[in-house]
Specification:
With about 425 residues, this protein is an alpha+beta fold. The protein folds into two domains: about 10-270, no CATH class; about 290-405, Protein Transport Mog1p, Chain A (3-Layer(aba) Sandwich), CATH 3.40.1000. It contains 13 helices and 13 strands. The protein has helices spanning about 50-70, 85-95, 100-110, 120-125, 155-175, 180-205, 220-225, 230-250, 260-265, 265-270, 295-305, 310-320, 345-360; strands at about 10-15, 20-25, 35, 80-85, 135-140, 140-145, 290-295, 320-330, 335-345, 365-370, 370-375, 380-385, 390-395. The longest helix is centred in the middle third of the chain and has 25 residues, at about 180-205. The chain is globular. It starts with 7 loop residues before the first strand and ends in an 18-residue tail after the last strand. The model is unreliable at about 1-40 and about 400-413 (pLDDT under 50).
């Protein structure tokens, strides 16, 4: 029998008082995004279609029974379903819900680290993906997009509902802390999506098809960055499930992974490895304003290198990550980005440094000294001290050094 590979992707929308999970199906080059809804949206369902809606509800009842029997958890509340149109979803969950300030800073970060070209518009890139949404869930309600959901296709539509229903059960039975960094948020999302992806793949396999997944190597680095929870979440949960069954998966929520490194290397998580929080570099004084502080993580470093170097080099040079903190300061149109990374040991730090130098060669940066480079847009300085690396990027380039930080001694910073 010919097999097909169904790919389930997720768009996470943070609503006023709940997490909403939206899903995509089998669309090439689809990207997920995290967006913020700043006001309550009045959901407007499509006009009634009795035969279609009854088909959806009948499939939902069947799939709910299947999920309860396989996952060993019962729904605490009755699950409802609301049918939407693609036009409504694009308008309200795409264009109308993007946090432009966060996107601007994210775009600055990605450009500063050479992951996207300077003329790339990240806002357009994110908004353009809303049309791929197939379904969503919030509270005890499942939302489906009529143009993308055919209840007569029980395999495809059933797998979508399994994924959504798993998220409803997660909301009823488990709690996760609020993430404090992007890397931590990616780890939490990987747990959530990995569990839903695993049970969806079991549904697909049980119904006679092959429940495959995404491959990082088939995606460009930016897309792979967005899709981390759906590429690597399921293998992480599978690792735990194989060792401890669903009880083992339940226990993860009591002590969830805090970094993409733990998701990429589940044996680290099982052995009790946890990331460290580096000490912050000294503040920049004067009129400089701190506008962003975050942790990027091993997976981000991997994609940064993948944008310009072979995947094998990218993977090896990112592994050994122990923790990091990145800051962006702004003053008018000028900015300073500082990124402090802690590695397992000095050898791992030097391996990162050599890869970063290779990246700079690939983007034709001009080496000004042993530890500094310039491009048309930026000045880049790198210092290594033991297992710590500090990168400073200044734009416009060649800013007076008295306005930049002193990176000559990071051990005491």
């Amino acid at each position: 029998m010919k097999t097909r590979e169904w790919i389930i992707l997720v768009l996470i929308i943070t609503a006023a008082s709940s997490f909403t999970f939206s899903y995509f199906f089998s669309h090439p080059q689809v990207v997920t995004q995290t967006v913020t809804v700043t006001e309550t949206i009045n959901i407007v369902p499509v006009p009634p279609d009795g035969e279609y809606e009854e088909g959806v509800r009948e499939l939902l009842r069947h799939v709910m029974e299947w999920v309860e029997s396989r996952r060993g958890l019962s729904f605490k509340e009755e699950v409802d379903v609301v049918i939407l149109t693609r036009e409504w979803v694009v308008q309200h969950w795409g264009v109308g819900s993007l946090n432009l300030t966060e996107t601007r800073l994210e775009e600055r970060l990605l450009k500063s680290l050479f992951m996207i070209p300077w003329d790339f518009n990240l806002t357009e890139f994110k908004v353009g993906r809303a049309g791929y949404i197939v379904a969503a869930s919030a509270g005890n309600t499942v939302y489906i997009v009529k143009e993308e959901f055919n209840p007569d296709n029980e395999l495809r539509a059933g797998a979508i509902l399994v994924h959504e229903l798993m998220h409803i059960l997660q909301g009823e039975y488990f709690d996760l802390p609020d993430p404090s960094t992007s890397d931590e948020e990616n780890a939490f999302d990987a747990l959530i999506e990995g569990e839903a992806g695993l049970i969806s793949s079991q549904y697909i396999s049980e119904h006679g098809e092959f429940g495959g997944g995404l491959s990082e190597g088939d995606l460009d680095p930016l897309t792979a960055l967005w899709l981390f929870p759906y590429i690597h979440g399921r293998p992480f949960v599978e690792y735990v499930h194989e060792k401890g069954g669903w009880d083992g998966v339940n226990e993860i929520y009591d002590d969830p992974p805090r970094s993409t490194a733990e998701i990429l290397h589940p044996e680290k998580y099982s052995e009790g490895w946890r990331p460290v929080k580096p000490s912050l570099p000294p503040e920049i004084g004067g009129e400089w304003r701190l506008v962003m502080q975050d942790t990027l993580g091993e997976y981000f470093i991997r994609q940064m290198f993948r944008a310009h170097l072979p995947s094998s080099t990218a993977n090896m040079s990112a592994e050994g990550w122990r923790g990091d903190v990145v800051q962006i300061y702004e003053k008018g149109d000028a900015y300073v980005m500082r990124w402090k990374i802690v590695w397992e040991d000095s050898e791992e730090a030097m391996e990162f440094l050599e890869a970063f130098k290779g990246l700079l060669r690939e983007v034709d940066a001009n080496q000004a000294s042993a530890n500094s480079w310039t491009t048309e847009m930026e000045s880049i300085m790198v210092e290594v001290s033991g297992a710590e690396v500090l990168i400073e990027i200044i734009s416009p380039p060649m800013k007076p050094m008295e306005e930049a930080i002193n990176i000559s001694n990071i051990q005491n910073s």
